[in-house]
Structures are given as structure tokens and as C-alpha cells.
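We emphasize that the prediction below concerns an isolated chain of 443 residues; any contacts that depend on oligomerization or on bound cofactors are therefore not represented. The input was used exactly as deposited, without trimming of termini.
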Amino acid sequence: MKKIALHWQIIIALILGILYSYLAISQGWMKFTLYYLRPFGDIFIRLLKMLAIPLVLFSIIKGVAGLSDISRLGRLGAKTFGLYVLTTVVSVTIGLGLVNLIEPGNKIDPAIKGEIQTYVEMNVSQDDGFQSLQAKQDATNKIQEEYGPLFILVESVPDNIFGALTSMSKMLQVIFFAIFFGIGLLFVDRRYSDPVNKAVDGINEVILLLIQWVMRAAPFFVFCLLAGQMARLAGDNPEILSQILQAVGWYMGTVILGLGIMALVFYPSLVALFVRHIGYRGFMRKLIKAQSVAFSTSSSAATLPVTMDVVENDLGVSPQTTNFILPIGATINMDGTSMFQGITAVFLAQFFAGGMEMTDQLLMIGMATLASIGAPAVPSAGLVLLMGILASLGYQAWWVALVFPIDRILDMTRTAINVTGDAAVATLIAQSEGEFTSQESSQ
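Result of the prediction step, given as a C-alpha cell string:
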């Protein structure tokens, strides 16, 4: 009997997890689900996060040290940053076009809207989880006030590399150190650099092996993760959740439509146009595994090991290109998150204030693009950034509480888009640099 491919196993587990959660809510199995299934989902995310930071560190060092020509490093960096910024601007622009065309915030019955506004301001905005997001945003605001527009540059440089290695939110600092260290290896005498390069290669191989072991159990972990998340989302009052879901249904549809355009039209069309030996169908088919893990974990960083495996082994991009581009992309390329911020900000302005001025929307394109560069590749980072954008434009940050209960659902979807964008950019750059290990047709 032919074995089912891993990506299909993950998709089946994902669907079964969602179906089980509905059954658990209706049958009263919440305690069992939260106490005995959800922990395994959390263990899965912890395992991936545990491996993500050392993978980023050693893969970037390996990638940079392998670029014997320092000028090639500059060329690769410029292409990577340029493409990531371009796709982010396109993503935000598409999102703003859709939210202005559909106007989801103006499609809600005024009576229901008034009730929800009161409930959100009095209850959800006081929730511990939301207050935690508010605290994170306050901390970010203090840093911005201290350093001004260059705060992202300051935050990119670690004052203690060992401290940076302990937090997923400091991934940009890990990337800075890895690139800096890799450049240093290019200039030191080979008597000293060769042993270090061999050690880095060895550690990298061990990490990749550990990732393979974790992924063998991914279907079980994904089932537990989805079952636990959906049960937790429903909480003790699924009726309130149902009312909010109905009220923001148009908004959710707008976000999912925009993300769908990016995933099903924009990225694969770019790959089909410039990387013909992979084509549209080849790109979409081979990326399913990484997208499924991204959807279930809601973290680009946690999905990074899987994304690197898919891009290198399935799409055929060289290890050097993969090791350099994807860890950077997992941190600075947040196309799905940027689109979400644009759509959500305008939706909230429509819902609470009747709309948003076009000048504010144009400002938001730049703000969302810049914010995505420093966004931590962890769950719900988009909400924290969105609060800052709303406050900067003169709107109420607590408005975000309206979408807070459903953010986990959208976070899953936009993370899958972030990962798709990372893979597309790596594939395009590999084509421009002639960095494919295989040119066989994938269509």
C-alpha cells in the first residue's frame, strides 16, 4: 500500500482537528481537549521554536561564509531586501483596494454594531490577553520615542548575543550577528576559518536531522494543536463568539480573499513567469507541506525548518541561497501580516468612525511596510504592530479588541502567506543567480 505523503497527512490532521473541536464543544469534551490534547500542540510549537533560532544562526553563518566573493553577498542582500519590500507594498496595496471596494465595516446592522462596540470596549479590551498585547505595544512605543525613526536599526544590533538567542522576538538581532560573524569568517586566515566552517556545517546537519525527527510526528501534533486552539477560542461563551463572528464575517472574507489573491495568483504567477521549469502547479504543489505547518503553528519562525527543507529539497534551490534568504525572510518578509494590517485598520475605522481618509491610507502603506521589517515572526505579532499604526494615525488602539477573539484564525492564514512569499522570493533569486541544484520540470 502506497504511503500517504507527509503534507497530505498534515492537511488531513488539520481538518480532523477542526472537526473534532466542534464535536468537543457540542459534547462537553472541553476539559479533556484542553488538558490532554492541547499540551501536545504546544509541545510541537516549542520543539520547532527550540530548533528555529540555532537553525537561523548556523544556516546564515554557513550561507555567508560560503559566498567566497564578498561582492556577491552585497548583490544577494540587495536583491533579497528589494524583492521583499516590493512584495510587501503590493500586498498592502491589494488589501487597501479590497477593503475600500467591499467596505466590510459598513455592512453591519447599526443596532448590532452598537451592542458589539459596547461589549468590546467594556469586556474584550480588558481581557488579560489583550492587555498583554497593549503592554508589548507600550514597550515598543518607548523605544520609538527614545530613538526616533531609526529605532529598527538600533533594535537590530544585540548588546548581548546570548540574550538575543533566548527570545524569538529578537530574531533580527540573531540575523545581524550571524551575517557579521559570517563576513568575519571570509576575512580571517583559512587556518582558523576552516575548523569553524566544519563545525558550523556539522551543527547545521544535526539540527536538520532533529527537524526531520520532529516532522515525522507532525500530523499527530497538528491534530492536537488545532483541536486545542479551536476549543480555547470558543471558551466558556461560544454564543458571544458566534455573534462577533457573524458581525465581522465580511471583514474575515475580505482578508481571506486578499490573502488568497497573493497565494493563488501573485506568487505562483511570478514563479511561473520567471522560473519556468517549476511553473505554477509545481510551485503550489511542492509548497503544501510548509503552508500546512505555517497554518497550524501561526509562526513563520517555527515553520522555518520546514520551509527550508521544501525550498532546498523540493524546489531545488541551492543550500547557499536557501540558508541566506529564508532566515532573513522569516523575519522581515511579512506580506500576509502587512495586508492584514491595512485591511484591519480601515475596517476598524469604518466600524467605529465611519471610515478612514485616503491620506491616512497612503501613509499606512509605508508604515505597514516598515513595521513588517521589524516584526517578530511569532503568533499575533500583527496585532501588536496594528495597535501602533492606529495610534500613530490618531485612532484608538483599543479598537483592535474587536478582532482579537478571531485573530488566531486569521493569524494562521496570513502566516501561510508569509511563508509562501519567502519561498517565492528565494526561488526568484535562485533563478537570477543560477543557483538551482536541479532544473528538471516540476509541472
